[in-house]
Specification:
Radius of gyration: 19 Å
Number of domains: 1
Mean pLDDT: 86
Helix content: 40-55%
CATH topology: CBS-domain
Low-confidence stretches: 61-66
CATH class: Alpha Beta
Number of strands: 4
Largest sheet: 2 strands, antiparallel
Order of helices and strands: HEEHHEEH
Distance between the termini: 24 Å
Length: about 150
């Protein structure tokens, strides 16, 4: 089974300069856990709900270590850009890759989603839920074929 039949498209995305608060709002509104970060349709990173939840503390620690001083208040999520907390080296696949390969990659790397790119542009996203849906679909099809005999 190919990824193109299961991936979600179009994809909700953010830009590197968007705020952590903006990204959190998108995740909550659409009930999703990952957002590809794009610039001119090109994938430059990915940010997860965990990245966003931990962002103020992570930025505070980084700033504290850089300045060798501690702050008394966490940074404001409205002022933290996505590029400060995103993962830049993103694992990707293409629409023509097999879902089985995606499942193996997700399991091995312990990730919940894989951006799908074609000709260097983001065209979709495949999530753990999409793979579970495919598994259920295949099992249902196998069950209905057995019942037809």
């Amino acid at each position: 089974m190919k990824i193109e039949g299961l991936m979600k498209s179009p994809v909700h995305t953010v830009k590197p300069q968007d705020s952590v608060a903006h990204a959190r709002a998108i995740l909550e509104e659409y009930r999703i856990n990952q957002l590809p970060v794009v610039q001119n349709r090109h994938l430059v990173g990915i940010v997860t709900d965990r990245d966003l939840r931990d962002a103020p503390e992570a930025v505070e620690v980084a700033a504290s270590e850089a300045a060798h001083a501690s702050r008394t208040q966490a940074p404001n999520p409205e002022r933290i850009p996505i590029e400060a907390v995103m993962t830049a080296n993103v694992l990707t696949l293409t629409p023509g890759d097999d879902v089985e390969d995606a499942a193996r990659l997700m399991r091995r790397e312990r990730i919940g989603a894989i951006p799908i790119v074609e000709r260097d542009a983001l065209v979709g996203i495949l999530t753990r839920s999409d793979i579970l849906d495919a598994f259920v679909l295949v099992r249902e099809q196998q069950g209905s074929r057995r019942g037809m005999r």
